[in-house]
Amino acid sequence: MVRTARVALDVILTRPEAEGQTWAVGLRKAGHRLKNWPLIEVNPMTDLMRLRSVLDAWHGYQAVMFVSRAAVTNALGTMKPKAGWGMTRCWATGPGTRQALRDVGVPDTLIDSPPPDAAQFDTESLWPVVQSKLQPLKPVLLLRGSDGDQEDPSSQGSGRDWLLRQLAMNGVSVEILSVYQRSVPRWDKYRLQEASQAAQDGSIWLFSSSQALDNLSSLLPDQDWGATRAMATHERIVQTAKAMGIGKVVFCRPSLGEVLASLELMA
Questions:
Q1: Quick one: which H or E segment has residue 143?
Q2: Distance spanning both ends of the chain, measured CA to CA
Q3: Cα–Cα distances in Å, from 199 out to 60, 84, 150, 203, 222?
Q4: Cα separation of 216 and 125, whole Å?
Q5: 150-151 and 140-147: which strand pairing?
Q6: What's the pTM?
Q7: Which residue range(s) make up the domain with 243?
Q8: What does DSSP assign to residue 42?
Q9: Residues near 22 by Cβ (< 8 Å), separated by ≥ 6?
Q10: Strand partners of residue 250
Q11: Which helix (H) or strand (E) holds 22?
């Protein structure tokens, strides 16, 4: 049950459209004035033959790592392993990705993710959960997004690099496949004017990706962010926001309940 907020705030949700739906509903139910402005546009990749070949080889992987809900929906939304789920583990760093795996039919017993009370939902919190289950001679598949012809820095980042190093040190090889493409959204002049105003009027921006911050900076390259208030769902995102010049940034864990509680403190 979502409690009504003590003070209604102007909140800007920047998550990709599909990933932000639950939070958007919850924020509105709590009475906040919401602007749903996704700062990452997500589109499926078109190499379906490559995806099909990976799914056909599903049982050859000891685990498949999904970097986000989008990785799940774009990889398993229309196709599934022909021979069933088998014993292959599915790794997720957060509750949203875990729920997406459940939604496409992955048995809960095959999903590894950080505990609900983890301080962060990231690869560092996932590692203690999966380390003891590793099989050195069997590869791990990493499913993530891309930016055009470049690897997606938000999906890779220091957290993904860290995980790849840990797997390498444990003798586990990793195959990587991009299953969706992330890009900067197309904002018209009216949205850009609104966003510039929202950077100065006390609105609270909610960021769950460093790439969202990078995209916002590219959309408004001359904006002064000194008066901007923001919440970020990972300490790395907090640091990106501060480096961008955002005046006030607070950390909150990436769950709707935590977001609403943190908004109460910022009222």
A1: strand 140-147
A2: 21
A3: 49, 49, 30, 7, 12
A4: 28
A5: antiparallel
A6: 0.81
A7: 10-40+185-266
A8: E
A9: 96, 256
A10: 231
A11: helix 17-29
Domain of 193, CATH number, reads 3.40.50.10090
101-128 burial, b at 16+ Cβ within 10 Å, e below that, comes to beeeebeeeebbbbeeebebbbbbbbee
At residue 147, what is the residue type? Answer: D
Long-range contacts of 193-198, Cβ-Cβ distance < 8 Å, separation of 24 or more: 194/35, 195/37, 195/219, 195/220, 196/220, 196/223, 198/10, 198/12, 198/35
Is 1 within a domain?
A: no
Summarised one tens digit per residue, pLDDT across range 54-87 is: 999 999 999 999 998 999 999 998 899 999 999 9
Q: Which residue has the tokens 């958007």?
A: 24
Please classify residue 242 by burial: count the beta carbons closer than 10 Å to its beta carbon, then call 0-12 exposed, 13-18 middle and 19+ buried: middle
How does pLDDT run across 197-220, given as a tens digit for each residue? 999 999 999 999 999 999 999 999
Q: Distance (Å, rounded) from C-alpha 118 to C-alpha 23? A: 20
- Find, among 253, 252, 228, 255, the residue nearest to 242 by Cα: 228
CA gap 88, 92 in Å, rounded: 13
> Does 72 lie in the same domain as 28?
no
The answer to whether 150 touches 178, Cβ cutoff 8 Å, is no
